[in-house]
Write a structure and sequence with these properties.
Elements (H helix, E strand, L loop, with lengths): L2 E7 L2 E8 L6 E7 L7 H12 L3 E5 L12 H10 L2 H17 L3 E11 L1 H12 L4 E7 L17 E7 L7 H13 L4 E6 L17 H19 L1
Length: 229
Amino acid sequence: MGDMVSFASNGHDARGHLALPASGSGPAVMVIQEWWGLNPQMKGVADYLADQGFVALAPDLYHGELAGHDEMDKAGQLMTELPPDRAARDMSGAVDFLLNHDASSGSGVGVVGFCMGGLLSFMIAANRGDAVKAAVPFYGFPQGDQEPSWEGLTAAVQAHMASPDDFFPPEAAENLGERLREMGKDVQITIHDAGHGFMNEENPMGAFDEGLAAELWPQVVDFLHSKLA
């Protein structure tokens, strides 16, 4: 449904999968990949959001590199070797691309991310509080030294975490939510009785929960439309 496009990234070029709504315009949403890369499943998420009325862009943060679902070691290596400054630059460029796209309407940009992308959703929301007005991170958040300055966070956050989750402990997620609310931030973090990767219908982690995904997707869509109208 969507197409690969190029966009400016602080003096460089980046690429991403852009999907447009049938209506021709809609609120803008960035989709941030899991550690596998910008694979067909993640492009499908952008396509789904376009079907729900959004202008959806999924930037290719690995610049063409991919790991198959049977290549967890490679996925981990790609994630570890992703230059943080490049990722930040590409995500910020994607935000600006969406803000300036002729099809984008509404107020600001929304962000949806999964796993590594959930962590990065928090990061770009904190770093681009001028533009990111809603964020929906799934089973991923910054911890310890990874945490950004939260002063710039203006987005409403509806986060969905997994339990059990060895990558992103649910207790730490709850602690983060409490700290952010104490700062006056509009942050809701829900811990679901499901494993890491419960939204991915290709089930690479063996944790896909069809019923939970069917329950949450309408909530995500309604939340984004309400915050970006």
